[in-house]
Design a protein that fits this description.
This protein is mainly beta. Helices cover 3% and strands 51% of the residues. The strands form nine sheets. Strands 22, 23, 24, 25, 26, 27 and 28 form a seven-stranded antiparallel sheet that branches.
Length: 471
């Protein structure tokens, strides 16, 4: 005798959704001499949603009775039994002896030419519903035959160039249960280009000398397209408009989302309403390096008057959390074109958009902000075994080196290194090759503290952490 409890897989310790009582008379059982006996009891047909429900066998009562007495329902219980064996209220998940699963994908609205794509499980059933599963993703992106793996439950934020194809295999295991690899092939559509969407864009910024002045953005769309579009604001979550011209705008960052109704391709563009700077700023742009993980900011001025400096601010959490990451001295006074540049070498180890703006400061301390620019960081692939540190453990006074072990994972990119321990981390330094890296290590490692040290290496979109013990 037992109860079968239907439960919610997201709340396995909560109250059951429903309960079913079962009573089964087996009949004569042969004596067990030197090994355990096994008795199989059929379970009634179960009606449940395999994506979020499971069953438990609870309060199981095994009764041995003479004289083939099958009417036990009113004679025995877990509180009053003899001869009987009772689980004492223990509930055991009813396992399914196989694994069944599937997955799908979705790509983000394209901002630039390298949209992010996420793969997620649409169903997972089988095994023991209360035990963890082992997830193994393997993917290939073409052109370039770029491969990668992941053990995350869902594979998110994979950067795939627009127009590329991909092949993904998912394998799920649990204990001794081995799932069958599920393949999926697909492609990311070609991105809508700026010229595909826009015929003309007119932005009117705010004149700081007019207290009641506001800005406006006027869009003329390309007549060749059939688009649905809407505006939102990073600064006002309630702002929404489906007009091609938005006006009476305060200073802020506005996002236009455009959907091609014929293909479903989606593209986002960022526009800014800013106060007119005391200087004449031209050609402000932010570009992600294709050879190393850094962002390069480039801008020019055509006129400067009492320009003390520029402060570079960055946010990787929307556009409401800007922090100063650097400073560039201004020319002061100039009537000629002056070019400026700044490299951000400390990009966050995650994928997604990063925003930049310039804070222009005069000698008297007054300041104004530039428009906001965005770069999208590709997904970072954490590797293991591409590099080797030796000797490890390392003693003070010994020669210490980093050596490439997996040549196919390194294509000559610049290498950015940091040394980390439990208390601090060094500033990241970039080297052009392995030789330069080891020359620097030969100078700094004699002064490295004893204990566990982490050598962090970045190249391209890959990162590896090597644990080194210093004695």
């Amino acid at each position: 005798m037992a109860d079968i409890l239907k439960k919610n897989i997201s709340d396995p310790d909560g109250d059951p959704i429903e309960s079913t009582y079962i009573e089964r008379f087996v009949g004569t059982v042969s004596p067990c001499q030197n090994s355990p006996c096994s008795i199989q009891i059929p379970i009634p047909d179960l009606d449940f949603v395999c994506a979020n429900e499971f069953y438990e066998l609870s309060n199981a009562l095994v009764v041995f009775t003479p004289n083939n007495n099958s009417n036990l329902a009113n004679s025995y219980s877990c509180d009053n039994y003899n001869p009987a064996q009772c689980s004492g209220g223990l509930s055991v998940p009813i396992e399914v002896g196989s694994l069944s699963y599937n997955f799908d994908y979705i790509y983000e609205c394209i901002e630039g030419e390298d949209p992010l794509i996420s793969f997620f499980l649409t169903s997972l059933f089988g095994g023991n519903p209360t035990q963890s599963y082992s997830i193994n993703w393997q993917y290939t992106i073409n052109p370039g035959n770029i491969t990668g793996t992941s053990t995350d439950f869902n594979l998110t934020d994979v950067s795939i160039p627009a127009g590329s194809t991909f092949s993904v295999n998912l394998t799920v295991n649990q204990g001794t249960l081995e799932g069958t690899p599920i393949p999926l092939n697909g492609s990311v559509p070609e991105a809508l280009t700026y010229d595909d969407v826009f015929d003309q864009v007119t932005i009117v910024d705010i004149d700081e000398n007019i207290p009641t002045e506001t800005g406006s953005i006027d869009i003329e769309f390309n007549d060749d397209g059939d688009f649905f579009y809407y505006w939102s604001s990073f600064d006002d979550e309630d702002f929404y408009s489906e007009e091609s011209r938005i006006e009476d705008l305060p200073e802020g960052t506005y996002k236009l989302t455009i959907v091609d109704t014929q293909t479903g391709t989606c593209r986002s563009e960022i526009f800014n309403i800013a106060r007119i700077l005391p200087i004449e700023l031209a050609n402000f742009n932010a570009v992600l390096s294709s050879t190393s993980r850094l962002a390069e900011l480039l801008w020019s001025t055509t006129k400067e008057w009492e320009n003390s400096h520029f402060e570079i601010e960055r946010s990787d959490d929307g556009v409401k959390a800007f922090q100063k990451i650097g400073q560039v001295t201004g020319m002061g006074w100039s009537d000629e074109i002056v070019d400026y540049a700044f490299e951000d070498k400390e990009l966050p180890l995650r994928s997604g958009p990063v925003y930049y703006r310039l804070k222009q400061v005069d000698y008297n301390g007054t300041y104004a902000y530039s428009k906001t620019m965005m770069v999208r960081l590709p997904a970072v692939q954490f590797t293991q075994g591409v590099w080797r540190a030796y000797p490890n453990p390392s003693k003070v006074g010994e020669s210490f080196r980093i050596s490439l072990m997996e040549s196919t994972a390194y294509q000559g990119e610049a290498i950015t290194m940091r040394l980390l321990n439990s208390l601090t981390a060094t500033a990241p330094l970039t080297f052009q090759n392995e030789t330069e890296l080891n020359q620097h290590l030969s100078q700094v490692m004699p002064y490295a503290p004893k204990g566990l040290l982490i050598v962090e290496l970045q190249w391209g979109n890959k990162v590896e952490h090597i644990k080194v013990m210093r004695k």
